[in-house]
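Consider the record:
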Amino acid sequence: MCGVPDDLKKINHLVSLDGAKERLHLYKANLLEEGSFDSVFQGCHAVFHTASPFYHDVKDPQAELLDPALKGTLNVLKSCVNLPTLERVVLTSSVAAVAYNGKPRTPDVVVDETWFSDPDFCRESQMWYTLSKTLAEDAAWKFVKENSIDMVTINPAMVIGPLLQPVLNTSAASILNIINGAQTFPNASFGWVNVKDVANAHILAYENASANGRYCLVERVAHHSELVKILRDLYPTLQHPEKCADDKPYVPIYQVSKEKAKSLGIEYTPLEVSLKETVESLKEKKFTNF
């Protein structure tokens, strides 16, 4: 059990969940320490590896993003080798590991699970988070093949919806910026998906014996201008950004295939609902200034 006082604040929202007293056991472990998860995984049927840092203001990409993603993933997988009870590993990857390869992404282009981001393209573009997820997923597939581990990856886009934790995460922060008085919105188009759909996909990926390979999770790709419009309709009294951060043409939207996710049993929450849930959660947790 996490017993270090410093950690207690980080876990209060978990230990207060329904049924946590009976069914939740928390252990202290370090992603960057090989063998850190060996004792934790004993007797487990499934391992869900969901942790990887995601933020934009990076000073040292290697230490802050690349090492935790790549070494962390491999350390978790190493602890899964020779685990007699293990049935499957479900790895949280990202659309970041799928869609960034220099190929054009326009409204008629459909990105699917056969796409892989190109590490060289990510490096040249200094997209460090994208690079971290690309390298981590690639290394994971090689490792599980060599060690005969059954793995499924879930590749969500920007995850929004209600916040479980007390701190602000990067995806929710992008919505908070729009409603908290920003003067401009970014000239960027991203895929968006509800956190509850992502959680459900992880469960289905474990429980459904025929689940295999990768599953992209994107309800809709939308430019920030569309988010502003939806939020203005939902919250007309708030001050919303009126103009784009630059004068360039809007970055085009593109499509992400939903076929494979639907075969898993995913039914997506509409973007409008996800945005409303995000704002209501931000209000409830006192992140908003209204």
User: Anything to note?
Assistant: The chain is about 40% helix and 15% strand. The chain has a mean pLDDT of 94.
